[in-house]
Amino acid sequence: MELWKGLDGARVEKILDLASITLNKNSVPGDKSALVPGGIRIGAPAMTTRGFTEKEFVETANLIHEGVQLTAKAKKTVQGTKLQDFLKFVESPEFPLKDGVADLKRRVEALTTQFRIPGL
C-alpha cells in the first residue's frame, strides 16, 4: 500500500496512541528487521467484547487510516530518521499536527465511550 511506504508500525503506534487508539506494532512478511516492524495489530476480540459491530469496525478502520495519514505527514516534517527523533518530535509543543491528532482523539473517544468496558 503506497500510504505505508516509508512508515513503520512503531511510528503509527505512537500517533494512534496519542489519539486514544491502543494497538501495537507487529512484524509482517517482508520486514527487513523484527526491530523495525512494518505493521500494526489491533485486538478485535476486545472490540467485540465491548459490543462493536461491523459498523464500528469500519469506523475504527477509517480512524486508523486517518492516524496513518497523520503519521506520514509527521514523518515528512521531523528532523532525523531515528524512531527516537520521531517520538521526541510528536511529543513536543511545536508538533504542527497536534490539532489533527486532538481532533482524531475526540472522534475516537466519542465512538468508544458509547460502549462499556467489561469489568468496569
TrEMBL record:
GO terms classed as biological process: glycine biosynthetic process from serine; tetrahydrofolate metabolic process
GO molecular function, one term: pyridoxal phosphate binding
Record field: catalytic activity: (6R)-5,10-methylene-5,6,7,8-tetrahydrofolate + glycine + H2O = (6S)-5,6,7,8-tetrahydrofolate + L-serine
Keyword Nucleotide-binding: no
InterPro entries: PyrdxlP-dep_Trfase, PyrdxlP-dep_Trfase_small, Ser_HO-MeTrfase-like, SHMT-like_dom
Annotated keywords: Pyridoxal phosphate
GO cellular component: mitochondrion
Positions of the Serine hydroxymethyltransferase-like domain: 5-64
Pfam families for this protein: SHMT
Cofactor: pyridoxal 5'-phosphate
Protein name: Serine hydroxymethyltransferase-like domain-containing protein
Top-level taxonomy: Eukaryota, Viridiplantae, Streptophyta, Embryophyta, Tracheophyta
